[in-house]
Specification:
The structure holds 2 protein chains of 2 kinds. Chain A is mostly helical. Chain A is built from 5 helices and no strands. In chain A, α3 runs antiparallel to α5. Chain A is elongated, with a radius of gyration of 18 Å. Chain A starts with a helix and ends with a helix. Chain B folds into 2 domains: 188 residues, FAD/NAD(P)-binding domain; 140 residues, FAD/NAD(P)-binding domain (3-Layer(bba) Sandwich), CATH 3.50.50.60. In chain B, the strands form 8 sheets. In chain B, strands 5-2-1-9-21 form a 5-stranded parallel sheet, with helices on one face. Chain B has a 4-stranded parallel sheet with strand order 13-12-11-17, covered by helices on one side. In chain B, strands 22, 23, 24 and 25 form a 4-stranded antiparallel sheet that branches. The chains are: A mainly alpha, B alpha/beta. Chains A and B meet through α1, α2 and α4 of A and α1, α2, α10, β22 and β23 of B.
Amino acid sequence: MHRMGLTLLLLTATAASAQDAAALQARSLAASCAACHGTLGHGVEGSVVPPLAGRPALQIDEQMKSFRSGSRVGTVMPQIAKGYSDAQIEQIARLLAKEQP
Amino acid sequence: MTMQRRQWMLGAAALAAGCAAPPPSRARVLVVGGGYGGATAAKYVRLFSERTIDVVLVEPNEVFISCPLSNLVLGGSRTLADLTVPYTALERRHGVRIVRDSVARIDAERRQALLASGATIGYDKLLLAPGVDLMWDSIEGLRAAHDEGRVLQAWKAGPETLALRRQLEAMPDGGVYALTIPEAPYRCPPGPYERACQVAAYFKQAKPRAKVLVFDANPDITSKPALFKKVFAEDYAGIVDYRPQHKAVAVDARRGVVKFEVQEEQRADVLNVLPSQRAGALAVDSGLANAGGQRWVGINYLDFSATAAKDVYVVGDSILAAPAMPKSGHMANAHAKVAAAAIVAELMGWPVDPAPMLTNTCYSFVDATRVMHVASVHAYVAAEKNYRTVAGSGGLSPGPSELEGRYGWNWARTIWSDALG
C-alpha cells in the first residue's frame, strides 16, 4: 500500500512536469506577440494595435489565419502570420484567450 | 512521516496540481545588463517560473534609455525623456532584485560574478546582455577625437545623443554633417540610414542649404535599400548624398576631416563617425567572444547558452547572429524570452523547448511622422542547429506612411512595457 502510493505519486509528478514543460513552451511561443501586443496580450494604455488578452481563441485563430492567407490586409501582421503553422497559431490563441482582458 | 518525506510529497502534490514547484533550494539567475535583452530576460524568468526563481539584475544606469527611436532626438521631434523608462517596475511588480553596479569579472567555475564595487554574487545560471562595444582603435585618431568631444558616435543613446544634437544646432546653414558607417555586422542595420533621414529632415526645415554626407563602408545600404534610396531621392534630394564603399580609416578632428581607405579625404563641420563594433567588453574579457573573427559570442541557438562556458547564456547584439538576423532591440527581446524559457526549464528539470521561434520588426522614421518597417520570423531548425527565416514570411513596407508612424511609436511604448513594465 505504502509503496503503491509512492509510485502513483511519482507517476503523477512525471505527467505533471511534462504538462508544465508543454505549458512553458506555449507561453514562450505566445511571448513572441508581446513585443507589439503587450505581455500576455495586455496592451499599453491607448494602444493602437488590438489587445489580445481574453479574446476568444477562435477569433484570434481566425484573424491570424486570414492574415496568413491574405484575406485580411495589414502592415506587419500578414508578414508575421506567414511564419506560423496552424498548430502554433492554435496554441497561441488558446493561451491568450485564457487571460483576463 | 518524516519532515523530509512530507516536503517531498507536498512538492509532488503541487506538481500534480499543475503549479510550478520551486526548484531545489531556490535557484538564482543573475542577469547582467538592463537593455532590451537583459531587462526582458529578468522579467520573463520571473514570469515563466511563476516567481519561484530568484532574479538579480546588475545594471549601472539608473534608468533605461532606448537606442531605437533616439535618432528622433537628433531630428528634434522627440526628447531623451520620451525614450527613458525607469527600472522600478521590474523590482516592484516582478520582484527582480536590482543592483546598481557593473560586473568586473566572471568566475564560471565557481559560478560567481565579481562586481566593480568588490562584492560577489553567486548564481545557478548567468545571463549576459552586454550589447556592443565600439572599437575606437579601428579608426586612427578617433579615440582622442571622441574623448575631446569633437567627434561623436551617439550610437548608444544618452548624453551623447544630446551633445550631437547641439553640434547640429550650432552648425551654420550651408554646413556639412558627415556620417560614416562601419562594415556590417553592427548594431541596428537600418539605424544609420534613419539617422541620415532625421538629420536631413531637421536641415530641410531649419538649415535648407546644409548637407548630409553618408559614407558607407558597405557595398550598398544594409537594410531596406530600395526604400531608403527612394526617400533620399524624393524627400531629401540635394540634402542627402549617399556614397557606398567608403571605408573610414582615420579622422583629423582639428581639420574636421575623415580619411578613407581608397577615396580622397572629406571635410565636414560635424563628423559623426561610427567605428566597427564587437560584443560588449564583459563578454570579450570573459573569453566568450569566440566567433565571427573573435568579435561575437558563439552560442548554442537552441537555448542561447555560450559555447565557451557552462551555465552562461548570452542574448542580444553581442551574439554571432544567425543568418538574416539583425542586431536589433526587438531581436534581443525575442532572444531573451527563448533564453528565459530554456533557463527555467533547465532549473525545473524539464525538457528545453525543441523548436523555439523568434520574430523581429524594425521601424525606421524617415521624418517626424512617417515610418517604414522590415519584419521577419525565424524558426529553429534542429538539423542545422540554427535559425532560418520561415519561407514566405517577413517583408517590408511598400513605403513610408503615417499609419506606420503610429504603429512605430506604439511598438516602442509596448516593447518598453514588455521588457520593463
